[in-house]
Amino acid sequence: MEKQEKATFAAGCFWGVEASFLSVTGVVDAISGYTGGHVESPTYGQVCEGTTGHAEAVEVFFDPKKVSYETLVKKFFTLHDPTQMNRQGPDVGEQYRSVIFYHSQEQKEIAEKIKRELASNYLPKTIATSIEPAQEFFKAEEYHQRYAEKNPGRVVCHI
Q: CA 70: distance to chain centroid?
């Protein structure tokens, strides 16, 4: 088995983010969940209340020989409006914030570089995406996994 790497992104509602990353060649798996907060093993209901500090996020497992982390970061920026603070479309709250959670110094540097490169594309707005060290990731309930596949033809989120 080839060596896999992990990337973690929060870009609003995780259903569409998960589906979008799963469509990328070289992505082996994508898992919806929660990270970045202070509550151990949060539930969807708790995260929706906005009191856990967690963001809806997607953990992406990828083959670096087939897709680069840089490509995934660029894809992340196309999936949402990174200038919105704590919201995406009608979804409002810190659980919908834009975050790149890095797993290594190299990932941090790549994420910062891409954010700087893309900044002029969003003027006069500022990119609100934060770049933070990865924390413990809590897998979301099973009904959230592969939501787009389980609910074909249904609009999922706002990407």
A: 14
Please tell me the distance from the alpha carbon of residue 100 to that of residue 154, in angstroms, as a whole number: 27
pTM: 0.93
Which one, of 22, 24, 85, lies nearest residue 55 by Cα? 85
Residue 90: burial class (beta carbons within 10 Å; 0-12, 13-18, 19+): exposed
Question: For this structure, is 13 an active site residue?
Answer: yes
Helix, strand, coil percentages in the chain from 3-state DSSP, rounded to 5: 35, 25, 40
Point out the catalytic residue in the list 11, 13, 19, 47. Answer: 13
**pLDDT (tens digit, 9 = 90+) per residue, 34-54?**
999 999 999 999 999 999 999
* DSSP H or E segment with residue 112: helix 105-118
